[in-house]
Amino acid sequence: MTVPKSINVAASRWPHRWAWLLTAATFPLIWWGGFVTTTDAGMAFRDWLTSDGHFMLTYPWLSSTGDKFIEHGHRLLAVLVGILTIGMVVVAYRCESRTWVRRYSLLLLAGVILQGVLGGLRIVLDERLAAMLHGCSGPLFFALCTAMVVFTSRWWQVQEVTRISDKSHQTATNSLARLAIICCGLAYLQLVVGAAVRHARYLTAPSAATIFQTAIYFHIVLAFLVLGHVLLLALKCFRQHSHRGYAVALSLLLVVQIALGMATWVVRFGVPVWATNIIGDVGLVNVSASTSMAVIITAHVATGSLIVAMSLAMALRTLRQSSFELPKFLSEQGKLLEAHA
Amino acid sequence: MKLATQVNRQLFLSLLVLGSLGCTQGEPPQFRLNMISMTSNELDSEYQQEIANVLSGLFGTPDEPFAHPATGLNQLKLDLASGPAWSDKRGYSHGLYRQHCVHCHGIDGDGYGPTAKILNPYPRDYRKGIFKFKSTFNAAKPTDADLHRVLANGVPGTSMPSFELLPSSEVESLVEYVKYLAMRGQLETELAAYVFDELGVEEVEDESGTVTEQRIPFDPSASPDQAEAVLDILSEIVAGWDEAGENVIQPAEDAIPADNRSDEELAASIDRGRELFYGVKANCIKCHGPTGLGDGQQTDHNVWNKENMDYIEATTSMADSLANADPETEEEELELDREWALLKSREEVSDTLLPVRNAVPRNLRVGVYRGGRRRIDVFHKIHAGIAGTPMPGLGAAGPGAEGTISEEDMWSIVDYVLNLPYEAPSQPQRALPTNHSNITQ
């Protein structure tokens, strides 16, 4: 992978700051969207773009309660993120010299518009599949915002890919990049399967039981796979003395996520019988729609998005330092990008 | 330009995929037939459809339920509980059952929702009209207050949560909908038996004297006799629910222990309870074990699992006998073909059933009481047993009947059971009043 040799280190910091602002505003939106599904507030309003006939920005949100407060809050926060994404495009075109970064900001804008449309489709069609797609593409948008933070960072801009004479070091770096990409892919796959677990429980078709059981089985299997790959990635990072901070953060997030996953199971389904055979009958009664239940379950969802975003950031950073022989069609794209830069 | 063209192409394809989302919008959910009832009564697909039509006419659909006047159910409550989950402009929640219950109890209330297989114990199948935790005699239905309490408190030690944070009106709507599903399920089972017993084929002689077989359709809208029979069956089912209030177990006032008993009185009652627990009449140790750990006999089944188990065993036995069948006449061959077809449908149903589980007696030493931990709850369990399970009752089977033991003795067993978590199994308390200082109230 070749990059332009001349780097403008005096470039504006605004794209990077704005990318951080956008990413920081999107994470609460992921949380809030998770709350909408956890509390099943998705159909609090049957209309979209209006809310019970009110224009979205003039709906008396602070006077509303329950699922209307939750769903409309989600809509308002989404509007804010949309505005910030438009701001990202403006800042990119005014302050960013790299054409591909400017175009990437347009991709973000398309992403947030698509996300809004998916959310609207969910309401208009009363379609749970649309809700699931919305729940999968939201974290993807969050990850893409994180990528913008990486692309606009000083680190990214001062990195130069050089042909390292020590072939084994380059091989190790390439191997790290490959593993980071696999981690990112697995993390996102796990998120999608998790979305299936969340939404399949509301299906009423005869195949609903099979879909849910398959989803939850794979969700548990993938949890072990993701954990194993992330721990291996951390080990490699420490051996190569690179990206250790990211590796530690990602590993800690995984541990927290597994704990949250177990907590989510307990607050949803109670303590499993195999566990009561070890610790004895617990007599736990989960209170449906309680705050603690909603927070634990949604925290599990939000941490999953954070893991995807962080693993993407790591994959991009390791890719930046790697030198792969790209497949022909990708290298042609790269040449086209250079020509347009 | 090349890049722009490629991006445009990919964008168009994505929009095409998204646009097809509208085409995948699901059909409204429909009630499914109780295939154990249908195949056990050897009903063909035509009769199954006719029964489905009758049920639809009498009870409606999951999105549009109908409170038939004969059921006495409240239409407004059913409307709130049924259909997809949404909120109206006043903020009232609709589709309560779909939001809170369907993922475990299923759209039919058959206890086979999407999550059922991973839960232990399985979610309740309402279709038999049998409910475990209630204040009525064993064979009687639960009262609305009983169902309300289960929803409000949840069932400790199981996946059934508490819905105490829902407004009381929403819980009432759910109770009404549970009764609706139970009545519908009970009627479905009775109709299957009625069609098997009364309908089928009849011999019809025409003017020329030729006798042919004619299928009797099940269509109450066209047959007043069938309509009357169906309504009679429904009335009998509803009567059971209406009479629940008259079947509440009222403990005798003079048998209820005083609240201000002294330690010695309590100790004496606990000792008496222990004696009965280990005695022949109550014989609690047979299932709950010699130390109350629930490690007595564990091989029995509750009625829901027993039905599945019997069905699977009967299907296996049918397969064995058909495999050895040797038809001699053409008539026997036709009959055998019909039986093979029935076996195939039974095997398909068997494959869908949840794995059979034993009814494991409760460990009484951990203080987890699924049916409620109030003294009266434990009293009800000892008096009436637990409906649908091997737990027998020691009290009267109905109003005015005689029980196995007196109510005073039942309250002593209550005292002993509630004291068990504080009694170490390896150090059984001696039945002496000097131990009363170790007893906590």
From TrEMBL, chain A:
GO cellular component: membrane
Sorted UniProt keywords: Cell membrane, Disulfide bond, Heme biosynthesis, Iron, Membrane, Metal-binding, Oxidoreductase, Transmembrane, Transmembrane helix
Membrane topology of this protein: Multi-pass membrane protein
TM annotation in the entry: 18-36, 76-93, 105-125, 131-156, 176-196, 216-235, 247-267, 293-316
UniProt pathway annotation: Porphyrin-containing compound metabolism
Name of the protein this chain belongs to: Heme A synthase
Organism of derivation: Adhaeretor mobilis
InterPro entries to which the protein is assigned, alphabetical: COX15/CtaA_fam (IPR003780), COX15/CtaA_HemeA_synthase (IPR050450)
Subcellular location: Membrane
Annotated GO biological process: heme A biosynthetic process
Domain of life, per lineage: Bacteria
Record flagged with keyword Oxidoreductase: yes
Pfam families: COX15-CtaA
GO MF terms, alphabetically ordered: metal ion binding; oxidoreductase activity
UniProtKB/TrEMBL annotation, chain B:
Leader peptide range in chain numbering: none
InterPro entries attached to this UniProt entry: Cyt_c-like_dom, Cyt_c-like_dom_sf
Protein species of origin: Adhaeretor mobilis
Domain Cytochrome c stretches: 78-182, 268-421
Gene3D superfamilies: Cytochrome c-like domain (1.10.760.10)
Protein's name according to its UniProt entry: Cytochrome c
Entry's transmembrane regions: none
Record-linked PROSITE patterns: CYTC, PROKAR_LIPOPROTEIN
Record-level Gene Ontology MF annotations: electron transfer activity; heme binding; metal ion binding
Keywords recorded for this protein, A-Z: Heme, Iron, Metal-binding
Domain of life, source organism: Bacteria
